[in-house]
Amino acid sequence: MKQRRLLTGLVVAVLVGTAGACDSGGGGTGDQWTAPAPGQAAALLDFAEGGRDAALRDVAFYGFGGVTAPGGMTTGPDGSVYGLGDKAVRLKPDRTVSTVEGATKAGTSTSGLVALPDGSLVVGGAGQVKRIAPDGTVSVLAGAAGAARTPGAPVPASVPAVGFHFAGPSPFGVGPDGTILIGDRDVLWGLKNGTLKQLYRTTGKSADGQLLHIGRDSAVDATGTAYISPEVPDRFPGRLSDLLASPASSPP
User: Fold this and answer.
1) Helix, strand, or coil here: 28?
2) Which residue in 13, 118, 195, 208 has a CA-CA distance of 20 to 30 Å to 163?
3) How does pLDDT run across 87-97, given as a tens digit for each residue?
């Protein structure tokens, strides 16, 4: 598991840097990127002109980088690495890259990406959490389109998942019992068997009174403990001292 997590980090560093080199827009800094030193990281894909993977660079760019910041990254049970940028893409162990079938059907403005043991993916967006099956079939696991709830307003401790109005769901992990962890602005939800359970809620505020939200840089370990870093959205990341751990197996 540690080795796989390390691989994920290396793929981020290599692909984001390399993708910048294929950006023909003015002012790009991709030409300043250099390959990692021996023993530091492994360049899994070669996007240079005439390189082995040059034909794949556009596909990889929109998944691991893109015009917008990556909305999620995860690894699958077969060792594939998935990236969610402007599109969802898959980097297989044989180093081939492809767009995830069914990702477009899941909607735009997706955020959060989780790989399940059966090979399916879970993404958030447009007020819903959806599952993309290996064959590309998309189904709604939780949430409802329409008006979003207001962060800071009362929420139930437990509620049927389908039909609930999220503030902005972003799934980020799955616990050992199959519980899917979802950051929803100020609330951390656990989704299992069609039910959402409130696991944690931020109550802190910034120096100027802004409600802290659960940051996108969240994770869950093998024991089911979720690690979150509260932040003020679109302003600055949470401090390391703000790192909180919440058991995913039991509500507050």
Assistant:
1) coil
2) 118
3) 888 989 888 88
Domain extent for 235 = 103-252
Give the number of C-alpha atoms closer than 13 A to the C-alpha of residue 99, restricted to the C-beta side.
12
Among the candidates 70, 100, 130, a domain finishes at: 100
Point out the domain boundary residue: 100, 128, 153.
100
| pLDDT tens string 94-108 | 888 888 877 765 555
How many domains would you assign to the chain? 2
**Other beta carbons less than 10 A from residue 151's beta carbon:** 18
Q: Do 21 and 142 lie in a common domain?
A: no
Tokens at 39, concatenated: 């023993």
Residue 122, phi then psi, degrees to nearest 5: -120, 130
DSSP 88-145: EEEE-TTS-EEEPTTTGGG-SS-EEEEE-TTS-EEEEETTEEEEE-TTS-EEEEEE-S
CA atoms of 105 and 108, how far apart (whole Å) = 8
